[in-house]
Amino acid sequence: MGGLEQTAVTLRHQMLVPVALRHILPIGVTGLFCALALFLMVSTDTTYLHSWGTILVQDIILPIRNKPFKPKTQLLLLRLSIAGIAFFAWVFSFRFGQSTYILQFFALTGTVYLGGAGSCILGGLYWKKGTRQAAYTAMIVGMFFGILGFAVSSWWEGYFYPTLNVMAPQLLEEFRVLLYNAGESLPFVNWSVEPEVFRRQFPVSGQEIYLIGMLCAIGSYIAVSLLTCRKEFNLDKMLHRGKYNLEHFIDADADRNILEAEKHHRFNWRSLLGITAEYSRGDRILAWSVLIWTLYGFSVCLVQLVWNLGFGIWSEKNWFNFWRCYSLPLALLVGAVTTVWFTWGATRDLRRLFRSLRNPGKASGTEADDGFVKHDRE
Description:
mainly alpha, Na/solute_symporter, Na/Glc_symporter_sf, membrane
């Protein structure tokens, strides 16, 4: 019953804003908002299904098989994978009750894949000593922390705490004291480990479990790579750099700054962003905008971190004022711009998609472009 009570409390807190909006917004605007929320749910779910389905086939099954499928077979596997994930989500929803905030839940469940995915992507693309064994190890470690964290957070009050309290009460108390001491030493955590609170809810949040999973996955990726790497991978050939960058050497003046930076191993922002001669003006504007926006968001987060660590933790009123005077206006501005931008871009790209489907022979892609990467350590 404890798990159901915690789920009810969580849902009650999360429904405060929707219920308030129902009384604040007029009827017509409320209907538009509900329609928009429904469309967003559909687009998000389809994107998730496509993403996870392709990840299973392209990033797990294909590397294990080590040779490509026929196009029809690969398309069938992708469809079956997507349908299987949809069926799992449908069945799982009957047995699961959310016991934490939605963003914490996203971080917690995301650890299952994202905990180790970052190590595989960054290590695989930018480290010549990265190995397949290290990638699988990192994914397993991230998955372990994700599943363990999800299970403990969801069934702490109903199963884990009562079981440990009976079978190993001393160990449970030592764990509580350890969390208390760690919380006192680390100013950026806020773990509630009072006995009554500790009994009802696991103190470590989903975001913190996500961080622990990522750090352990990174460490395991580096360690296993160093132990299993027998021959360095040819990153230049895979990424078409250096002597393999034939497209840019056709024109002696093309990407001169990038070529000089590669030649002298000099840091170059354009090279970091991957801006090449093929980029149009719009592509360059988009690439720079994404970088500036990301750095700006990181700077704001860094200022908040320094302020709270060095000058005192913000009160709930301060956080509310920050949300009201900064986050909300910025979200409205960005939302207005991206709504126009995405509506126009999505309409244009959708027309191009149907045009390409009507004329498959004129499409730029080929059947060989199936996402399969051959292993080459020359």
